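DM from R.C. (forwarded with permission)

"hey, sorry to bug you on a friday — could you get me a structure for this? deadline for the figure draft is monday and I only need the backbone to look sensible"
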Amino acid sequence: MSAENHLQVIFITNDKKNKEKAIEEGIPAFTCEEYVKSLTANPELIDRLACLSEEGNEIESGRIIFSEHLPLSKLQQGIKSGTYLQGTFRASRENYLEATVWVHGDDEENKEIILQGLKHLNRAVHEDIVAVELLPKNQWVAPSSVVLHDEGQNEDDLEKEEERERILKTAINEKMLKPTGRVVGIIKRNWRPYCGMLSKSDIKESRRHLFTPADKRIPRIRIETRQASTLEGRRIIVAIDGWPRNSRYPNGHFVKNLGEVGDKETETEVLLLEHDVPHQPFSQAVLSFLPKMPWSITEKDMKNREDLRHLCVCSVDPPGCTDIDDALHCRELENGNLEVGVHIADVSHFIRPGNALDQESARRGTTVYLCEKRIDMVPELLSSNLCSLRCNVDRLAFSCIWEMNHNAEILKVRFTKSAINSKASLTYAEAQMRIDSTAMNDDITTSLRGLNKLAKILKKRRIEKGALTLSSPEVRFHMDSETHDPIDLQTKELRETNSMVEEFMLLANISVAKKIHEEFSEHALLRKHPAPPPSNYEILVKAAKSKNLEIKTDTAKSLADSLDRADSPTFPYLNTLLRILATRCMMQAVYFCSGMDNDFHHYGLASPIYTHFTSPIRRYADIIVHRLLAVAIGADCTYPELTDKHKLADLCKNLNFRHKMAQYAQRASVAFHTQLFFKSKGIVSEEAYILFVRKNAIVVLIPKYGLEGTVFFEEKDKPKPRLIYDDEIPSLKIEDTVFHIFDKVKVKIMLDSSNLQHQKIRMSLVEPQIPGISIPVDTPNMDINEPERKKKRREK
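My reply, with the result:
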């Protein structure tokens, strides 16, 4: 072929020696940078080059800021000999000069090491695996109570940093000191692409700018770009390339433009990317494993399955719920006892082990519920149709059926795959109305009343055993049907029927946990909730003490009892506040494999064993539990991965990560919608209660909106008030006014858009009145449209 003779081969390499060799042999060779710069038709490609030239970068001051990272071989030697400790670096959201390292391994003594100051953080980034050296005891510090955000534009302002570091070192008693260290090297970087905004350089025509990530735990990143003016005011993605010793910030490059800041679609995309939530549409490979429509139950499906379509089964869910996982029934037996059934969608019938659909569901791990969007774990055909236990259609289920006496004591339990036909899909409110109505006595209502009566007994018994009833302010938005903007915001109301469904779900989960652990002692997937270390409760005990109440925390039972007793006739909301604070003291509940752990206890539920069985449409853990249970009762066959405890432990690790991220993404979504709400609402004043006191701020909760926020008392360019912080009580004295946890205050709430990247709800104190601090209710705030003024100033 003659065309082939005209093909010119060019060699692209960043390896100096390789390039020289190629040129010697007459092959045209270029570095990546030289080649991309030659493509004059696509100038934007230059921005995407990783920044390689760490040395000789003219903007970096010659001054060495950080100490050198030790090579990996030295780190490994040091870790082996115990000179260094290996752990995960966790940056603080509240203070950019502070971080903690969670040490890997079983040593209880130095589980958590605190790092303070730029030089000790030594270029580690959130989630990196680092090696730290413990400092001598006389250099140990206490976690600071100061809230510090990196707002400097000028990166050579190191004197200012040093002054800020001095603020951290506060006089404290010996008790507060924690093991303190410094980063000596990086074992593994865990960088990812970061979402955020460009802080355009003030220097005209400059190509170098700072990028501010949306996640406050990530440092700013210096990037080179020729499109700064088009990227201003937009959400972009940037990747880190490296962090030289003489640079205050890491270097990186531009990856992608996501869209206009504040735009609902863009912000949702940012939120999903930042929390690593897989949200791409399901691929064809995944969808190819879905059943063909129209679908109906066949004779083959009924093999190893009981036909329970005659039972009076119904589901009770929140309004608008389309992914109905569970349904219930209750009927009296001829012997006078009651039969109660929990019927769960048989998702594992449709998702077979190891295929693309199974792998994708396992990767996603959980459905993520945002304020107006649901990111499904399984495709919609299953989640909202074939697996959803809607009324008046035949559906496949996995049933857990108990025989109980009227005192809710379990006499027998059996598990079976089944076919059901739900007679009603009710909301919590509709179910409650039926239970309370004197006029209704049909089968469904009778079944609901039986369930409700038993649930009350079960709950009472659970609480007597020491289960905790904690509280978290949950918020509901009422959306405008046209614009989908929030028009009202209120805390969720819980009914008796919420509790009724919850009791039977807990009971089913516990019954299934016992069964799969009996059958598979080494590889049951269980869920545990560790008891918090006593130090976690310090804040709760001190806060209660400041209101003359005693909270005992030696066991879950004594905590539950003292929370029940802690009430004040003059301050009814106090008990809720204590429960909200107690929730903050808790550890995270986690999935684990029974063969890899010996502590199974669930602290919050006061149960010796627990798992998740009742929500397989939205949690992958439940699918595995269904598979284990199906093998245990002979309704399905096993497969190698199901009985491999190491594979199961890896799966649990991913599930725990996905669940945590889903929770954070949900919170971020609520925060964004709350901002939209206050943007249209304007400035409001509301009653609030103090949850925490800090050194220069108070953190408050506004019950009306279930909203939390910080009131700062030191503001830039304003005279500093006299602040005295006492960590023992804890209290904060401002001029002559003392604030304690749970004190009632009045705050003004408004949206502060002066920082487009982190638009935030800003709170200022209205009452009690402190001269120079409190603001009158009706003062308009000038700085709300700060960006406009800044822009004008730059244009001048």
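R.C.: lifesaver. Confidence is low (pLDDT under 50) at residues 54-60, 779-796.
me: no worries. The chain has 21 helices and 33 strands.
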